[in-house]
Specification:
single chain, alpha/beta, seven-stranded mixed sheet, six-stranded mixed sheet, 8 helices, globular
Length: about 280
């Protein structure tokens, strides 16, 4: 298994075992990075004003998701790089999602459906590339990532990232938890008829792994797609700390406490008792 770590995983900032998290439910403007970055700038300012240390955006937020052949030229502009300045100016970490354009040493090019963890100084701590591509919508445009676990430490929390469909595979969340994740940050673009993922599966993934799980969904109509909203922050005891409605932009804010993770893992010690040798 390939696991991407941020260096030696030392804390980027001293922590008291708490992290105030903002999950942003929002509708991207299709193929308009400037409009989406302007909206993100305002959301980051509001989240910081509410005391949040970290903001999570929806999947492919910076360019829009369902934009087909319009995506490659926008990806070449490296729009995720522009999020770094937003994080730095507002002094807030951001899990930003969008296309990552890569030119390999042999001259070949690839676009990944990516999530970047950017700290409050604008430094990129980690990059996750979606490993489970969803149908032709993803496969026609993106190359699948090959690192099932992407983990970095921010303000004393070990944070793993998954993108949308990734979290629906129990292997992905279990791998993140076994690698030491306290929080799994997920930018989705969850659509009809799959709202049961938001309502039920996210809290189960959090509970069965003893982790916090944050799910920041797109909302509204997008071509033939209809996003289901219902963004959520779930705690390791399977509770929804905050949840959004079906329609409209919302900023969910909750404070995460590592003591809850310890209590959850004592109550349901799946990670400690898992016979990993049987599932290699």
């Amino acid at each position: 298994m390939t696991i991407c770590f941020n260096g030696d995983m030392e804390p980027t900032t001293p922590s008291d075992g708490q992290l105030t998290l903002a999950v942003w439910q929002h509708a991207s403007v299709p193929a308009d990075p400037q409009a989406n970055l302007t909206a993100l700038d305002a959301a980051a300012a509001e989240a910081a004003q509410q005391g949040a240390n970290l903001l999570i955006t929806p999947e492919m937020h910076v360019t829009g998701y369902n934009i087909g052949e319009l995506l490659p030229p926008l990806a070449r502009l490296q729009p995720l790089e522009r999020v770094r300045d937003i994080a730095r100016r507002h002094g807030i970490g951001i899990v930003a999602a969008g296309p990552e354009f890569v030119t390999h040493d042999d001259g070949t090019e690839a676009i990944f459906n990516a999530a970047w963890l950017i700290d409050d100084t604008g430094a990129v701590l980690a990059k996750h590339r979606k490993i489970q591509l969803f149908g032709a919508l993803d496969r026609d445009l993106f190359i699948a990532g090959d690192a099932p676990v992407t983990l970095a430490r921010f303000r004393g929390f070990a944070i793993a990232m998954l993108v949308c469909f990734d979290v629906e595979f129990p292997e992905a969340t279990r791998a993140a938890a076994l690698a030491g994740a306290d929080l799994i940050a997920v930018p989705p673009a969850q659509m009809e008829p799959f709202s049961f993922v938001n309502e039920h599966l996210i809290r189960v993934r959090a509970w069965e792994n003893g982790v916090f799980l944050a799910y920041a969904n797109q909302v509204g109509a997008d071509g033939e797609l209809r996003y289901v909203g219902r963004s959520v922050i779930a705690d390791p005891l399977g509770r929804h700390l905050a949840e959004a409605g079906v329609e409209g932009s919302e900023l969910l804010v909750a404070t995460l406490d590592l003591g809850v993770s310890r209590a959850a893992r004592a109550q349901s010690p799946y990670l400690a008792e898992l016979r990993q040798e049987l599932f290699a």
